[in-house]
Design brief:
Length: 86
Amino acid sequence: MIIKCRECNHEIEGVDCPGCGESTPEEGNFCINCGYKLKDEVTGMSEEDVDGLDLDDRILCPDGACTGIIIDGKCCECGKPADPEA
């Protein structure tokens, strides 16, 4: 299923959320509508990783719908590269 980004209308692969039934990006870890956990293993960060972050210098994910930050060149939530051209 194809859905459109709420911000830029870019077409992305989507799935129906088992929690609310609404369409959400396929590669997301959580539903963008209700927050339902879509994957058993989230690609996010451990508590040890979070403790070492300087939150003043963080770089937000380039995807306007994602709440992740860039770590080692990619988003810690959705996995998208910091530079979409890369």
